[in-house]
Amino acid sequence: DTGVSQNPRHKITKRGQNVTFRCDPISEHNRLYWYRQTLGQGPEFLTYFQNEAQLEKSRLLSDRFSAERPKGSFSTLEIQRTEQGDSAMYLCASSLGTGFSGNTIYFGEGSWLTVV
Amino acid sequence: AQSVSQHNHHVILSEAASLELGCNYSYGGTVNLFWYVQYPGQHLQLLLKYFSGDPLVKGIKGFEAEFIKSKFSFNLRKPSVQWSDTAEYFCAVNGPGGYQKVTFGTGTKLQVIP
Lengths: 116, 114
Known about the structure:
Order of helices and strands of chain A: EEEEEEEEEEE
Oligomer: heterodimer
Largest sheet of chain A: 7 strands, mixed
Shape of chain B: globular
Distance between the termini of chain B: 41 Å
Largest interface: A-B, 25 and 29 residues
Low-confidence stretches of chain A: none
Structural class of chain B: mainly beta
């Protein structure tokens, strides 16, 4: 059973550097989500793709953040010029659905980012 | 924007005690409701979900939740907790209709004492 796969699982980077995370969703899932989670908080929505189209972006996603899903399969989340406030767990999730159907979202294990 | 409130941040129970975790959301209309669980060191896993129909839904591991539309609530219950239920529990809401993102509450940490 292949669930949602994320890598790297942990990343430590110096402030000002760029980082990129990759997410491989469950096969054939057309929807892909990125969330961010900090200690003591629930996951916060960042962005959402349906196939290759990025349909929604949170205001949390500043200009330094960019997400892509070029072929409607895997996705990347890039953070440019990292800041200490970017330290968090970045979660990827996927689901299968059309319209506003009751689709269940399945999460990956997350990628921990520490900016020093 | 939709918001989700979980009023219990940290709950400590003895084994065999009954559990009820509160969850309220802000916007009504057509919503899908979820409870996710995160065991220590593991990823978020779906416990149960409500899309439509019977407002009392049953999930895995003996958990159930009741959707009360008039109260904008979706409380999680378990009649008798076990030590292995120690985890963090998140309520989540998809909607109102048309919005695909799922909004999460801040979570409730449950500690079950043997």
